[in-house]
Amino acid sequence: MRPIILGICSAFFFAFTFVLNQAMELSGGSWIWSASLRYIFMVPFLLCIVLSRKNLLPLLRVMRERPGTWLLWSFVGFGLFYAPLCFASAYSPGWLIAGTWQITIISGALLAPLFFENIETKDGLERKRGKISVKGLFMSMIILLGIILMQLEHTKHISMANLWLGVIPIIIAGFAYPLGNRKMMEVSEGRLDAYQRVLGMTLASLPFWFLLSIYGFMTVGAPTKMQSFQSLLVALFSGVIATVLFFKATDMARGNMQKLASVEATQSMEVLFALAGELLFLALAIPSLLSWFGIFIVIIGMILHSYVSHKNEGPARKRTVNA
């Protein structure tokens, strides 16, 4: 149950991304700076944490073993995740982005066959390729049904062009984030804690963010002080606190694809927290009865998803970490 609680806490802090990115877009800030500044600002925070725990040198040793792999999957997990997320904010409101982002619930389940898991049986450990949990996938569809009901009334007021420009980048991000996260868990082989892994992926993704920053200077100019401050808040709340909490939760479920998918399903709470944030700070209209019914469906779907995942984890098929 603890990984689920950590996942919900991470969803709360992740919601700051959608609210603050929408606030930056409404004030005229560019998505380029919203994306790149977050990860640039994350570095000093994470360095202080890892240095205080005396874990920087072990991290650098692990990164030196496979630098190309770190660069690739950090770009996928962070670059192809957050740049499209910020790009979408230029075309869609935060609530729609948060709702579409729940594609991670299904993508997390669909990615299971790409990874192996060690299953402890009476004959010892057996290494098998992960399987898609049909029941878990069905529960994920219930969650997405709730999300659709929540957003149904709002989609009537958005042009088709803006809808697709907001949806397609989020679909890309929704698959890139769990893929990059899981690949880096596989590469680190349990040798790094959540703080080290987030710092390592942030450092490895910096070349992309620097290139994007150069492009930003050439096209839209320097960021404003307000956007820099808001990006700093996103870096702290979402980039550091939320990411570390989520990585801790996924580390605890590492090697168990069904439980891992359950942890990733907790991110559906982001839309609830983002909705609350926009109601409080961006003067969003109060949702209709249909939207509140969708919220109820999301909560029920999360409970059922967690229950099914734990029920399917029998004592005779205890899963251990990837190897």
TrEMBL record:
InterPro entries: EmrE (IPR032713). It holds the Pfam family EmrE. Coiled coil: none annotated. It comes from the Bacteria. The chain crosses the membrane at residues 31-50, 70-90, 96-116, 136-152, 158-177, 198-217, 229-247, 292-309. Keywords: Membrane, Transmembrane, Transmembrane helix. This is Multidrug resistance efflux transporter family protein. It comes from Peribacillus simplex.
